[in-house]
Write a structure and sequence with these properties.
about 350 residues, globular, mainly alpha, purine nucleobase transmembrane transporter activity, membrane, single chain, PUP_plant, Probable purine permease, transmembrane helix
């Protein structure tokens, strides 16, 4: 990589950069809107007799054409960058993007299985365990340091998930067997594990990426790979003709609402993944995981308010423990940032004293 590329990378990730703050805010808004809306829309699809898990998987990545806007507009319309789209996009990055995209496609399928069986509030609380996996995998992949606060968070969130598994099978949708309930439970746990793996893997890959536009280019390739996997699965299950039949025969809100639901899901899922990728690039995989976990509380509330999911007993205790673990983690991050700031100030002071001594000797 050239020196100019390194300079651009440091400039775009610098917290003092005005564009950095703008991108950070925009990406968090994308993540917030996409996470909450996609979760509720996916549940709406299954609640009204939508039954194809491949369709639910497909909509999570089929919105990849939307990524063409952040890729091409900055160069051709806004003229805010000199870099042409897909320049410096090496074969190595292409291959990695395809492989990660296939992993993301499998994650989407597991999420669809889990969301088809579980209440929104339950699946959201289970997905909070991705922060636990994220911490562990970040230690292995990006050498994240483990602190007492991190370990405390791991224990509490794991306990929260176990309590939920043991005590909330009674709130399963009517007609759902106990076996299918636990299929949904473990599918959701698997989705959390794969997504937790995705975050630090992308953080490591992003070390070779020097601008936000390249992040969106990688995301485009990943989404195309995930969509190809989902499309192959749909083809084995009847293809798009099955979607048409489902809209006319199975979906109890009619074809118009069916297609609005499908295309709304396409847009909101793309916003969610765009926001996640941007947060990891601009901050870290752990910060991305923290933001996802914080938003899961909104998904729980949304499930209770919109669909009337039960929210009492064990689920309340599980939520409190989950929040406790999350707050302990945030507090640990705060202590770390304060320690780093104090160390930086101390080093700066020592450097100033050293310069004064050198000047007096002259």
């Amino acid at each position: 990589m050239s020196n100019n590329s390194v300079r651009v990378q440091e400039d775009q990730k610098a917290r003092t950069n005005k564009r950095y703050t703008f991108l950070l805010v925009i990406n968090y808004l994308f993540l917030f809107v996409g996470s909450l809306s996609s979760s509720l829309l996916s549940k709406f699809y299954f609640n009204h007799q939508g039954s194809s898990r491949w369709v639910s998987t497909w909509v999570q990545s089929a919105g990849f054409p939307l990524l063409l806007f952040p890729i091409y507009l900055p160069f051709y319309v806004f003229k805010c960058t000199d870099r042409r789209p897909f320049s410096h996009f090496t074969p190595r990055i292409l291959i990695l993007s395809i492989l990660v995209g296939l992993m993301l496609g499998l994650n989407n399928l597991l999420f669809s299985w889990g969301n088809s069986y579980l209440p929104v509030s339950t699946s959201s609380l289970l997905l909070s365990t991705q922060l636990v996996f994220n911490l562990i995998l970040s230690v292995i992949i990006v050498k994240q340091k483990i602190t007492f606060q991190n370990l405390n968070c791991v224990v509490l969130l794991t306990l929260s998930s176990v309590l939920l598994a043991l005590g909330s099978s009674h709130d399963k949708p009517q007609g759902l067997t106990r076996a299918k309930y636990f299929v949904g439970f473990f599918s959701t746990i698997g989705a959390g594990l794969l997504f937790a793996l995705y975050l630090p893997v992308m953080e490591k890959i992003y070390k070779w990426i020097y601008c936000y536009e390249m992040v969106m280019e990688m995301q485009l390739v990943m989404e195309i790979a995930a969509t190809a996997l989902a499309t192959a699965g749909m083809a084995s299950d009847g293809g798009f003709s099955e979607m048409k039949r489902e809209s006319l025969v199975k979906f109890d809100k009619g074809p118009a609402i069916y297609w609005v639901t499908v295309f709304s899901n396409v847009v909101t899922w793309q916003l969610c993944f765009m926001g996640t990728a941007g947060m990891v690039f601009l901050t870290s995989s752990l910060t991305g995981g923290i933001c996802m976990t914080a938003l899961l509380a909104m998904n729980v509330l949304g499930g209770v308010l919109v669909y009337g999911d039960e929210f009492g007993g064990v689920k309340v205790v599980s939520t409190v423990i989950c929040g406790w673990g999350f707050c302990s983690y945030v507090y640990g991050m705060y202590l770390k940032m304060r320690e780093e700031k104090e160390m930086e100030s101390k080093n700066h002071g020592m450097e100033m004293d050293h310069n004064v001594v050198l000047a007096s000797n002259v």
